[in-house]
Design a protein that fits this description.
Elements lengths: L3 E2 L6 E2 L3 H8 L3 H8 L7 H14 L5 H8 L4 E6 L5 H16 L3 E6 L4 H13 L4 E4 L7 H8 L4 E4 L10 E4 L1 H14 L5 E5 L5 H16 L9 E3 L9 H8 L6 E4 L2 H14 L9 E2 L5 H4 L5 E5 L2 H17 L8 E4 L2 E5 L10
Helix pairs in contact: 1-2, 1-3, 2-3, 5-13, 6-7, 8-9, 10-11
The structure holds a DNA duplex.
Length: 350
DNA sequence: GATGAACCTGCACCGATACT
DNA sequence: AGTATCGGTGCAGGTTCATC
């Protein structure tokens, strides 16, 4: 390791291109080009410079690089709740995909809070990120307007706005809601409690649409008393879910907005009511278990997350590469039923 | 000597901040 | 208020060398 000192001989200084240039006899530019693998530098020169850089312990100064090039090779990942394993799984996949493309990520949690979302976007802009992947809270559009104002390439993940065109990768939530509800109906259940997320969120609205469509296909009248909205933020406790379950509702099956909520219900319900939980089928949404491999018997709605992650990263990188392109990336991932660890002899209904 | 490719260099510039 | 500084890069242009 090469430790440089200043004139007073006190402070260690980081190795710069200038120092490598002095050591090798080439100019700063040649050193820069060689280290960046530019084709206009001979293999022999590149080899000499790279060896010296390694010997001196050179690490590229990203802020200086960004100053001139305008690119930081950083993508902001602004998500509503990183404590939810669903998002943790997606973060892991996105990180890997970004790493392969030579990018690093800046992860920020908004907790479904507008103020935090706005602050996260401000922070991303101040750090000159090259692009933003955001799952908007949809309470307002201030943060999105800020991104637009600064002309930062971005893409929505998981949610979309109906009223303005933007790039997004989402699940087919309407179909997911339909499949989940149809599955419970196929078991002979007729009073399906739908514990949805807040209706201002596009995925909640779509899943509700699917729920209604499934009821209609079985000619079952829609009962508003059997649809409730619950908090989905990380900071929120189980309070509103608790209040809903405490009510004297007459239901024989539950469709939960997410696996996370479904698991909470599985814990809370036996504590609150004298019910045999095995007689009340519960279906979740997100298919976390495919990634976490928990031994729970569980039914849920899933989609190809590996493909989803690839689609969102590759689309954003294309937007960054060609920001003036008219191409709009609006990708809807197909959803399907997933059955985990069902008892022996059990068969999924058709 | 003309030509062109390969290789390398010099200038200008990025934005925030310290200094004059 | 104006200037210098930090480290790195885009671009234009200069030098060298091989080939005809």
């Amino acid at each position: 390791m090469y430790i440089m000192t200043d004139i007073s001989g006190k402070k260690p200084r980081r190795v710069t291109l200038k120092m490598i240039a002095e050591q090798t006899g080439f100019t700063i530019n040649t050193v820069s080009h060689a280290l960046n693998g530019k084709s206009d530098i001979s293999a022999r020169t590149t080899e000499i410079i790279k060896r010296k850089a390694q010997e001196m312990g050179y690490i590229n100064d990203m802020t200086a690089s960004a100053l001139r090039s305008g690119f930081t090779k950083t993508i902001a990942l602004i998500l509503p709740n990183v404590a939810n394993p669903f998002w943790a799984v997606l973060i892991k996949g996105i990180n890997l995909e970004l790493y392969r493309a030579g990018y690093t990520s800046l992860i920020m949690d908004t907790d479904e809070n507008s103020h935090l979302e706005y602050r996260a976007v401000q922070s991303a802009i101040s750090r000159k990120v090259d692009g933003i992947i955001i799952c908007p809270n949809q309470l307002d559009t201030k943060a999105i307007q800020l991104i637009e104002k600064h002309r930062i390439p971005y893409i929505f993940l998981g949610r979309k706005f109906e009223d303005f065109p933007a790039n997004y990768v989402i699940w087919d939530d309407e179909n997911g809601g339909f499949l989940a509800t149809s599955y419970l109906l196929s078991l002979g259940k007729r009073k399906i409690l739908f514990l949805n997320g807040p209706r201002h969120i596009s995925s909640s609205a779509e899943r509700f649409r699917g729920y209604c469509r499934a009821l209609a296909s079985y000619q079952i009248p829609y009962d508003p008393a059997l649809v409730a909205e619950t908090t989905i933020s990380a900071a929120g406790d189980n309070n509103d879910l608790l209040q809903i379950l405490k009510q004297d509702l007459d239901f024989d099956a539950i469709f939960a907005f997410s696996d996370f909520i479904a698991w909470e219900i599985m814990v809370l319900l036996p504590k609150l009511k004298q019910v045999d939980i095995s007689q009340i089928p519960i279906i979740g949404f997100d298919d976390i278990q495919s990634d976490l491999r928990l031994p729970l018997p569980f039914t849920t709605i899933g989609a190809d997350k590996t493909l989803e992650v690839r689609q969102v990263v590759q689309s954003l990188l294309k937007i960054i590469k060609d920001p003036d392109s008219d191409t709009c990336y609006q990708i809807i991932m197909p959803t399907h039923l997933v059955f985990h660890n069902q008892p022996e002899g059990w068969a999924a209904p058709h």
